[in-house]
């Protein structure tokens, strides 16, 4: 690992802002994608479908890990909570990976409008990660497979490094919890390196998670029992995340604690899916959405003329 400096920290912050903005734009907008004018009801999609709750955490983890392994072609990021697909798509678009398989998803204003307009839309992109997405092998609604898949990719390839983001609700599945045993079987010099990250936001679709209710000591002892060394990451600040990544420990298991729906409208902090249900017909919700979008200052991150600015 290489140390990440001030310039890189700022780049991480900007990447998270841009990807968060793109998530919101994908969820809600069918026009006015850079909010260059006041939002109207006509700018909002007729049907809103997708998940916001886990997306900010995905963007935080993705940005921090990609920055740390920026020049390592053997690094990969595996995503467990595939229902946070707009975050994954935002990052794949930003890195140019989506354009490789879909030339319409270019890293310019046309490509930005394309991914936003066609997210969760007929004949467009599904609301969950699917095999249509580069590198995805499992339908995004099937939680629990990411860690096992990552160990499979690393098997016999010591050069590979895989960061695996696991939702705390996802860790309740039999597949995910049993996959933790693979650490004892496959952590050898002949296989690649796995870096699990538990996104501990405390909630799943039906209520609080088991692991969100555990004390830090209980959760840490559970993780230690599988042979990992738990490393806590409190909040979404990249300085804290990078400090955790620099700790010299054997078989680290990172636990990133953020709020469910963090970064969304304050009155919908714990939203799992769409935090504003009626911005197409409710004036107050429309203004709340506009304030939310403008809070990212996307003009500092993306230009209609120049494209990506970070």
Can you describe this structure?
This protein has helices spanning 6-28, 55-68, 85-94, 97-101, 109-117, 146-154, 174-179, 182-186, 210-213, 216-225, 238-245, 283-294, and strands spanning 75-79, 161-167, 193-200, 203-204, 207-208, 229-234, 252-257, 302-303, 307-308. The chain has 310 residues and is of the alpha/beta class. The chain has one domain: 3-Layer(aba) Sandwich (Rossmann fold), CATH 3.40.50.970. A five-stranded parallel sheet has the order 1-2-3-7-6, with helices on both faces. Strands 4-5 form a two-stranded antiparallel sheet. Strands 8-9 form a two-stranded antiparallel ribbon.
Distance between the termini: 22 Å
CATH class designation: Alpha Beta
Strand content: 5-15%
Shape: globular
Evaluate the radius of gyration.
19 Å
User: How many domains in all?
Assistant: 1
- Biggest sheet layout: 5 strands, parallel
**Uncertain regions: pLDDT < 50 for 5+ in a row?**
none
Element pattern in H and E? HHEHHHHEHHEEEHHEHEHEE
